[in-house]
Each structure stands twice: as C-alpha cells, then as structure tokens.
Amino acid sequence: MALTVRKIEASKPGTKVVTLSDGSGLQLVISPRGSKGWRFRYTRPNGKRNVMSLGSYPELTLAEAREKRTDMRRLLAQGIDPVEQRREDKREQLYATENTFAAIAREWHDTMALRWKASSKRAKQSWGALELHVLPHVENRAIDGIKPLEWLAILKRLEAAGKFEQKRNIHSMCRDVYRFAIVTGRATYNPLTDLGVALQKHRGESFSHVSQAEIPELIQAIEQYDKSVLIKLGLKLLTLTAVRPGELRWARWEEFDLEAAIWKIPAERMKMARPHQVPLPRQAIETLGELHRLTGRYGLLFPGRNNTMQPISDAAFGMALKRMGFEGRHVPHGTRHMVATGLKEMGYPGEWIEMQLSHKLPGIQGVYTHAEHMAPEQRPAMMQAWADRLYSIGKD
C-alpha cells in the first residue's frame, strides 16, 4: 500500500532497519537511531539492480519524494541511469561556477607544470605571459563567450609590437587552454584553431652559427678552452649530439646507457613533450666518461657551483663562446643549425635529421610518422659519421 504522512509519523525505529514501501521503487528507510531517508530502487539500463538516495525525511516530503521518483522513472524510460545523470549534473554545476578563462587557464597551467617540473622557469614564464598579454582582456569572462575577433585583437597587438615569438607562444597556450576546457565540458569549440589565416606569418631569424668552413676554428677553440673543463665538455657534447642547450644542462646521469650508446631524455624535459632518444657516437661516450669523473657523484651532469641540485647557468655555454671570440658569430643553440647543415651536405635523409633535432615533421607526415630511425644503420651511424667528420676536420 502507498504510504501516508500519518503512517510515516506513526512508524517507530526498531532494533533493525525498518523499510516502508511506497511502490514503484520508492522506499523510506528508518534506522535504529530514528533517522529516516528516502531510497529509490531500480534496474539499470544494463540490467543490474541499484539503489540511490533521494534525501532525508522530513526535509524531503512524501510528495517531493514521489516527484523525484517520477523524474527517475522518466530517465530510465529514456535509457538513462539516474545515478550517472546525477553525477553529470554535479560536474556541470561545478564547472559552471569555474568556467572563466582565468580559472580554466590556471587549471591547465597547474596540469602542465607537472610536465614542466624539471624547469620551474618555463612554468613561471608561461603564466607571466598570460598575465601580461591575455588575462587583462578576458580574465573573468566565461570561456565559451569569448569571440574569435577578441582573440584576434589580442594576437594582433603582439604582431603590431613586433613580438612574433611571443604571439606564437600565446596563441599556442590559449589554444591548449580551450582544448582543456573542451575535454572538461566547459567549452564547445576552440576559437583559436583557425586564427592563423588572419595573422601574419613570421619566419624568425636563425640562431647565429658558424659556416661549415669555420667548423675547424670552432672545434679547435673548444678543445683549447681552459677556463672550465665542465663547460668545455658541455660544448663538445652539443656538437656531437645537436640537442638543445637546456636539454643538456638539465641532463641526469640516470638517463644515459653508455653500453647501448643511447641517451633517453624524458618527455617532461622536451620542447615537444615527448621522450627523445639520442644516439651517442664514440667521441660522445669518451667525453661523457671524462665528465663522469668530475660530476658522476651528482645527479646532474652539469651541477651548479653553489647548488648542485640545480644545473649551471643557462648563460654559461654562451659566455664561454664569447670568450673564445665567437660573439655575434655562434651561440650554443646555433650548434643545432651547424650540425643540421653538415648532415644535409653529407646526404642524410631529412627525416633522420629532423628526428635527431627532435623536430615535428611538417604536415600530414608529422601526424602519422613516429619512426625514431634508431636502427644501427640509421641515426646512430649518421651521428658517428658526423662525429668522425667533425673531429677529423678539427685536426686539419
């Protein structure tokens, strides 16, 4: 029989749980301590039995409990599990109160900072760029309500100021914030995806680097550098591996397998956020052996002088090149250009060279090609040939 208010009020708790049924799955459960709560028993769309709480009596009246039962049965008639729907509603309610661009950007940044943990500087710089160039314009706006033209205006300001690299970084970060918002249910589309067609394309100048004819001069200067053995060995490794200077400064001994002649750089330290394998030619292994005698007791290959938990200054390699007389002619990052040019002249495939530099291949090739070209006759042989050439011309 259906429940009445009088019957509910007259019901007393017992030594065990007392269950009163109102029919169609609605029940009132009375605990031995006297609390009363509404329950709805039902069969899920997958055929399994389930029970969900609707609220406490008398806060939720008999009439209100029946209304909720009716709502639950309507959902079941549509093949929707009421418990799953309740969870979804809670998620949407939570996100509805945290859907400003600033709030979502902070969530995205906190997530990315875990990947950038090896470089707190990157996390600090990226958030600083958003605070300076983006948040003053859209900070407290609902992310789904910011129009493409508004984003275009923000990026155009950077273009007008000649800050093309900053524009590229801001565009990329904000686009990723929207991707994060979409997967967390707080945005339905990404207004930054197609803005590139309305922006100027800027080909930045390459980093200063010596020509192939000037390589013997550079190698000889590195070999004769006597201000710091640590820096000398680091510069040699840059010429032998073509890694980014920051990847080398933060390198840890645990990443190296000298027997297999491979350096495995973890994804969180890579610009492309993917792990990278670097083949080590014989000359690089010899250099690493010499370096290990100096810093092998530390975690980092290049520990700082005052704090061995941090690497040497990001200016250390550059300052050494200036002292050698290469100011304005060659910078540490320019070594990658020098190596790439040399490998192209030696006739090696562009895909091998781009993978050595940890570059993404252009167009559809970059989407579907994930080969690392680490077979012995591929990148390892290429870098050994480069090292042999480098140090043979360095002795000429």
TrEMBL record:
The keyword DNA-binding applies. Residues 205-383 form the Tyr recombinase domain. The keyword DNA-binding applies. One of its GO terms (molecular function) is DNA binding. InterPro entries: DNA_brk_join_enz, Integrase-like_cat_sf, Integrase_catalytic, Integrase_DNA-bd_sf, Integrase_DNA_bind_dom, Integrase_recombinase_N, Phage_int_M, Phage_Integrase. One of its GO terms (biological process) is DNA integration. Keywords: DNA integration, DNA recombination, DNA-binding. PROSITE patterns: TYR_RECOMBINASE. Belongs to the 'phage' integrase family. This is Integrase. It comes from Kushneria sinocarnis. The lineage of its organism: Bacteria, Pseudomonadati, Pseudomonadota, Gammaproteobacteria, Oceanospirillales.
